[in-house]
Predict the structure.
Amino acid sequence: MALLAHGPRLNGTPLWQVPDGTYLLGPDGWLAGAANASSTPETLTVVAICAPVQGMATIVRSAQIANGAWEGVYATGCPIGTFVVSGGAATIHPLAVLDTSSPAIAGQFINAVSDGQYPVPSGWHGGAFNDSGVPQLLKAAAICIPASEVDAGGTLVGTAVQGPGARLGTHSCGIGRIALGAGISEDGPSVGQIQAFAPRLPSLPHFANGRPDGAYESFDTFLYSWYSPSTNPVPGRFATVCVEPAGAPNYVVTAIEYFNATYGHYFVTPMQSEIALLDQGVFPGWIRTGQSFRVLSDGYLSTAPVCRYFREDVTSHFYSASVAECASVRNFSGWVYETGRLFSGLIPDDLTTGACKTGLVPLYRLWNGKVNHRYTTSLDIRAQMIAQGYIPEGYGPLGVAMCVVPTN
C-alpha cells in the first residue's frame, strides 16, 4: 500500500479539508489513508498519541502539485512560547503519493542534515509526486505545544539505505522520554513509497497491527518502513521527535526479596506498605534474603506495567511485563489477579537474545517446576538456582523476564 494521508483531524475535520491558517487548538484525532494496488484487501492501522495538554496550536499549510511534478509544503509559525512536537501531511488522490511527512530542522528537510540529534523541529514538511494527470492538493500540519509542558525535547535523524525493496529504520528516545512525532523523507521525488510509521509499544505485541483496537501505554520508539522500486540503493531519512514531559512521575524504587523456608518460596515487592508488614512479622516465616533489584515506578514513561498474581493455596506470586502473559494467567486455576500496575518494566529489545535496551539490565526468571518463581538480576544466583533444579523462563537463552534498572 502507498500512504496518501497521515495527519491530524481538527474539530472532526480531516487535514485535507482544513483551510490554511493557525488554529489555537490541538487535534481531536488522527487520520491515515492509503492506496492499495494489490489484488487482496489490506489492513490499515492508525495510532493517535493522546496527552492532557492545554494551550496547543495547529498550523496548516497547502501547495498545488502540478501533474508529473514533485512539490513540497512547509507548515511553520507556532505561536510564541510553543514549539513543534508532531505533524502530518496528506493528499487525496491515489496517484499523488506521499514520499515526505517529516519534521523540519531549522527550516530544512531532514535529507539536508546529517544523522544525529537536533533541537525540536522548526516546522513540518510534506512532499508528494503527482502522477494523476491533473493538479492535486498537498497539505501539511505542524502541531505545537507550550514549552512549559516539557522539561526537555529534541529530534533524532537517521538514514536507512537498502534497495530495491523494503527499508527499515528505528529510533528510540530513551527511558523517561516519549515519542510524539515521527516522519520519513525520501532522498528524491518518486523514488519510494512510505509504508509505515510504526510505534513500538513497550509491552508485547510491540506493534499496533498485532493488537485489537484500544488504548495502550505511551512509547519511546518508532519503526519506519518504506518501499523503493529503484535497482540502486536509495537513502531514506527518518526522524523522531522526543520529549520529556514536565512533572512526569519518573523515579526508581527498590524491590526487596523475601524467602519462606516453610514453603520454599520466594517473594519480591517494591511496595513500602508490604515491606513494612513483612519486616514486622505480620506474615510469619518471610525473611529478607538480602537480595533486591531496582525497578521503575508505576507509570514511568515508555514502559510496560507489571502485573502480579497470587495463589493462596500454595502462597506464591507471579509477575510479568507481558500483556499477553498477564492475560493468560487468568485462565490458570487458583491464580488471583492482584494488580496490573505493581511497577514498570520493559520487554527485552531483542526477544531472541533477551538483550535489554541500553541503560537497563536483565531480570532473570527461574521456575521451581511447581508454582513458584525466583527473580534475580544476578547471574551467580541464576546459576545457583539452576543447580538446585530451577528452570530458566523468559526471553533469550538465559530466560529474561523483563528489563530493570541496574544497581548503582
The longest strand covers residues 150-161. The mean pLDDT is 88. Residues 379-387 form the longest helix (9 residues).
